[in-house]
Specification:
With about 200 residues, this protein is mainly alpha-helical. The protein contains 9 helices and no strands.
């Protein structure tokens, strides 16, 4: 008789491997991280590893895919809110909070080293699209409501917002002294200035 698979246990084991890999990639980079090191960090054997992830690259893209899914879930949870600007700024705060994970800087560098690999480029594009599409209706609504600057079209405001968010991550990765914890308030303040917010919600 075939062994029954417990979906919840399968999910928990998969997430544990992803978490261990995130730590390893952040510490040693993608190329220098071995599957053996990930197995040790996750407390599993190689057979279990390859049951969940055929290759190390599959595991890296799974980490990015998980972040994309969480982004979509975050925006889905905002449905029904009536203050568009508050949603936009809440996402900025949310992104800054996620960047406080000490592994983020190293992981950004690890991904940067393989971002031209087609499989990685594809998931990164999907991740960027999820953020863009999640923010778009809220930025548009904020502009329509007169909450942000009117002299820029919505897409221009959105592109500058994405530039700030991406630049924040890149600076954290490139400059150890640039702390997400210390600079989160500055990110929000800069966002408000760029978007031309006069009365930001607090």
């Amino acid at each position: 008789m075939a062994r029954t698979v417990d979906p919840e246990r399968h999910r928990e084991r998969r997430l544990a491997i992803i978490d261990a890999a995130l730590t390893c990639f952040a510490r040693a980079g993608f190329e220098r991280t071995t599957t053996a090191a990930i197995c040790r960090a996750a407390g599993i054997g190689s057979g279990t590893f390859f049951h969940y992830f055929p290759t190390k690259l599959d595991l890296l893209t799974a980490i990015i895919d998980l972040g994309t899914a969480e982004t979509r879930e975050w925006f889905a949870a905002q449905s029904g809110r009536d203050d568009a600007l508050a949603v936009v700024l809440d996402y900025v705060d949310h992104a800054a909070d996620e960047a406080r994970d000490d592994r983020v800087a190293g992981f950004v560098l690890a991904v940067g080293g393989v971002m031209t690999v087609p499989e990685v480029a594809t998931v990164l594009e999907a991740d960027e699209r999820a953020i863009h599409d999640g923010l778009l209706p809220w930025v548009e609504a904020a502009r329509t409501a007169g909450q942000i600057r009117q002299d820029w079209p919505t897409e221009q405001s959105l592109q500058w917002l994405l530039l700030l968010l991406n630049g924040f991550l890149e600076r954290i990765a490139a400059t150890p002294a640039f702390s997400a914890r210390e600079q989160s308030a500055a990110l929000r303040e800069t966002t408000e200035r760029v978007l031309g917010v006069r009365n930001p919600p607090r």
